[in-house]
Write a structure and sequence with these properties.
The protein is α+β, with helices and mostly antiparallel strands and about 325 residues long. The protein is built from eight helices and 18 strands. It has a six-stranded mixed β-sheet with strand order 6-7-8-3-9-10, with helices on both faces. It has a five-stranded antiparallel β-sheet with strand order 13-17-14-15-16, with no helix packed on it. It has a four-stranded antiparallel β-sheet with strand order 2-1-4-5, with helices on one face. A hairpin with a 2-residue loop joins strand 4 and strand 5. The longest helix is centred in the middle third of the chain and has 18 residues. The radius of gyration is 24 Å and the shape is globular. The protein starts with a strand and ends in a 7-residue tail after the last strand. The protein binds adenosine-5'-diphosphate. The site of adenosine-5'-diphosphate (ADP) has 11 residues, from strand 2 and helix 1. The site of adenosine-5'-diphosphate has 11 residues, from strand 2 and helix 1.
Length: about 325
């Protein structure tokens, strides 16, 4: 196990006047044993960042260290990392045991030791009864567990996960999320997990790196990112529906955006006067899409009582301790 330190990490694809900058200087001190999620929309540079840690992409400038060791110039096989991909990349002609053992065989680990490590990983992942099967005889979730098993037996310093759950259906995704958490509790291996899914990020991360167009917008715990977003980008990206951002709300200051999450608005007899556009029923709760003057406002309320109708006028009160203020020009939190 090891810490992972990124210092001013920059990546340009191509060179000279054709260089395309995609990572603009990322700094992160990841502690030994931490589970870190890198989250952001498609194209923001998540995979590039992960692949630079893995050694599958060169870094243009800056430094990456695993433990005390700077790994900039080390080839992937010597970095002591193991990677789990979205497509499980299992060998179809090998059994589950063969797939999990393969990397160790290549590394000339003694046979007894291989068997002991595979058996231990299979036990953790509940794959013990499937060791003789071929990948085609497994479900998608089981294949993903084999891919994780293959990474575990390597006993790496760092686990790298590249959107490993995106090929699974919603139910299996939720289940595998819980398994990954359990695995991390048991093994305590420093992990970097890439996803574009904010729910996955919120539920898995001890801390998360929120990326936007090659910049690290925020590095913090799920609570910090949700309750003290560093920018309007983070405020809108984390949370569904996103935070309301208002320019002309009563009490708003010039040059400043007022942010309030949909669940921090109370419908009652006081507060802002809004006009209802539509109402979405979600079972336990409902979303009211309304207008405050000419600005859209989403309100999340618990289900119960009569739902308002389009055209109705309501009063909604923002909770005073839940207001966020952002610079209207830079989008940064004030
Ligand atoms: P993400 O994983 O967040 O979807 P990527 O790291 O894959 O984003 O890509 C970041 C940016 O770098 C994107 O704009 C993408 O088009 C660009 N990019 C990725 N790979 C290459 C490449 N080999 N050459 C040029 N540009 C690339």
């Amino acid at each position: 196990m090891a810490s992972l330190t990124l210092t001013n990490v920059v990546k340009h694809y191509g060179s000279g006047k054709h260089a395309v900058p995609v990572i603009h200087g990322v700094n992160a001190d990841i502690r030994d044993g931490e589970f870190i999620v890198i989250v952001g929309p498609s194209g923001c540079g998540k995979s590039t960042l992960l692949r630079m840690v893995a050694g599958l992409e060169e870094i243009t400038s800056g430094e990456i260290a695993i433990g005390p060791r700077v790994v900039n110039d080390l080839e992937p096989a010597r970095r002591d990392i193991a990677m789990v991909f979205q497509n499980y990349a299992l060998y179809p002609h090998m059994s589950v045991f063969g797939n999990m053992a393969y990397g160790l065989k290549i590394a000339k680990v003694p046979k007894d030791e291989i068997k002991a490590r595979v058996d231990k990983a299979a036990k953790i992942l509940e794959l013990g009864h499937l060791l003789d099967r071929k990948p085609r005889q497994l479900s998608g979730g089981q294949r993903q567990r084999v891919a994780m098993g293959r990474a575990i037996v390597r006993q790496p310093q760092v686990f790298l996960f590249d959107e490993p759950l995106s090929n699974l259906d919603a139910k299996l995704r939720a289940q595998t999320r819980i398994e990954i958490q359990k695995l991390h509790r048991e093994l305590g291996i420093t992990s970097l997990f890439v996803t574009h899914d904010q729910v996955e990020a919120m539920t898995l991360a001890q801390r998360m790196i929120v990326m936007n167009a090659g910049n690290m917008e925020q590095f913090g715990t799920p609570e910090e990112v949700y309750h003290r977003p560093a920018s309007t980008f983070v405020a809108s990206f984390m949370g569904s529906p996103p935070m309301n951002l208002l320019q002309h709300a009563p009490g708003a200051r010039p040059g400043t955006l007022l942010g309030i999450r949909p669940e921090h608005l109370d419908v009652g007899s006081v507060g802002w006067q809004v006009v209802v556009d539509t109402v979405e029923l979600l079972g336990a709760e409902r979303l009211i899409y309304a207008r405050l003057g000419d600005e859209p406002l989403i309100v999340r309320v618990e289900e119960g009582g009569a739902a308002p109708h389009p055209g109705d006028t309501l009063r909604v009160a923002p909770r005073a301790d839940r207001l966020h203020w952002f610079d209207a020009t830079t989008g940064k939190r004030l």
